[in-house]
Write a structure and sequence with these properties.
The protein has 117 residues and is mainly alpha-helical. The chain has 6 helices and 3 strands. The protein has helices at 15-24, 28-38, 44-51, 55-67, 87-100, 103-109, and strands spanning 42-43, 71-76, 79-84. The radius of gyration is 16 Å and the shape is globular.
């Protein structure tokens, strides 16, 4: 039995599910991929050029995003093209980016994580 990508629903989600949702978006490369795919579909080579990552690394991030239902893929000949599967994900990223602009961005830069006991 093969696994299929699942959409991570935030509506009515518990705190742990919400944390997993944001954990997927907590990687800089994944955010760059979501940003780029918000402009239209792209193949891996195009995403590698934009993110500055390796093909292997970008492919792994795309696999994660596909598994979570954030990104979809389609094959065209020998190429695979990726697109945003869930427009809410792009909206969340855009909304948070708008919210942290300016002073909040500076304050977030001063945040330090500590391990909870």
């Amino acid at each position: 039995m093969s696994a299929t990508p699942q959409s991570v629903s935030v509506a009515g989600a518990g705190t742990a599910t919400l944390a997993r949702y944001f954990h997927v978006l907590s990687d800089v490369t994944r955010l760059r991929i979501i940003d780029e795919l918000s402009l239209g579909e792209r193949n891996v080579s195009q995403l590698v050029a934009v993110t500055g990552g390796t093909q292997s690394g970008v492919s792994n991030h795309l696999a994660c995003l596909r598994w979570c239902g954030f990104v979809a893929s389609r094959r065209s000949g020998r190429e695979i093209f990726y697109s945003v599967a869930d427009p809410v994900v792009a909206l969340v990223v855009s909304t948070v980016r708008h919210e942290i602009a300016g002073d909040r961005e500076l304050r977030l830069g001063a945040c330090h994580t500590t391990k909870l006991r």
